[in-house]
Amino acid sequence: MEMVCISDNINTTTGMRLAGVEGLVVHEKAEVKAALEKAVANKENGIILLTEKLAKDFPEIISNIRLKNQETLLVEIPDRHGTGRRSDFITSYINEAIGVKI
């Protein structure tokens, strides 16, 4: 089983390649869609790493891939600019899930 990284910047892709994860850089909607479809079609890919910026910019493509695909895990990762999430995102998930503020 392999991983592939789909990123919107060369720095993230280079860092992942140094870690042994192949990847590609995409920017346009058609490029993102084609890259995801190709990555999902390759049955060797078990995990697809996708930068948070691409996931935020093209949510309809990401949702569609997640709904149609059951074999490959699609994971959003922060890029060189850090995460787009709030600093207390884990605590807010716990609060929402169990209804108790910690």
UniProtKB/TrEMBL annotation:
Record key words, sorted: Ion transport, Transport
A Pfam cross-reference name: ATP-synt_F
SUPFAM superfamilies (UniProt xref): AtpF-like
Keyword Ion transport recorded: yes
Domain of life: Bacteria
InterPro entries named in the record: ATPase_V1-cplx_f_g_su, ATPase_V1_fsu_sf
Protein name: V/A-type H+-transporting ATPase subunit F
Organism: Alkalibacterium gilvum
Organism placement in taxonomy: Bacteria, Bacillati, Bacillota, Bacilli, Lactobacillales
